[in-house]
Design brief:
The protein is of the alpha+beta class. Helix content is 48%, strand content 21%. Strand 4 and strand 5 form a beta hairpin.
Length: 126
């Protein structure tokens, strides 16, 4: 089962690269991870995405941003699904559509893995 639509990914990655740098906000879970590594990083501060790549079905569309002072900034590569984009930003609809589809398909894939795992346990019983 593939998670991402290859045509959608090629289009979106290409379109995103054309509008870089792009600003977004980190999700609460991502912000917590960033703060662990960069304690003085403000969660209200937008992230400037400087690079976009594709990590296959495992990671999806990835965004690169830096957190912290320029002298000792930490670089983060995170899934676009952990970022929130302003509705007025370029490609906001396309990004939201990708995020929604990817999250739904990832959830389904995990559910399928759980069912297959449970069936394996049941079938393995004497």
């Amino acid at each position: 089962m593939t998670i991402d639509d290859p045509v959608e990914v090629v289009f979106l990655v290409s379109a995103l690269r054309e509008v870089l740098p792009l600003t977004a906000r980190a999700s609460p879970r991502l912000a917590a991870v960033v703060r662990e590594q960069v304690p003085d990083w403000g969660t209200t501060r937008p992230c400037e995405i400087s690079e976009v790549s594709y990590a296959g079905d495992e990671g999806g569309i990835m965004c690169r941003f830096q957190a912290g002072d320029a002298a000792d900034a930490q670089v983060f590569h995170v899934s676009i699904t952990h970022m929130t984009f302003d509705r007025r930003s370029p490609l906001a609809r396309e990004i939201a559509r990708y995020q929604k589809r990817r999250n739904k398909r990832v959830r389904r894939a995990h559910e399928l893995e759980m069912v297959v795992g449970m069936l394996g346990i049941v079938e393995g019983r004497p």
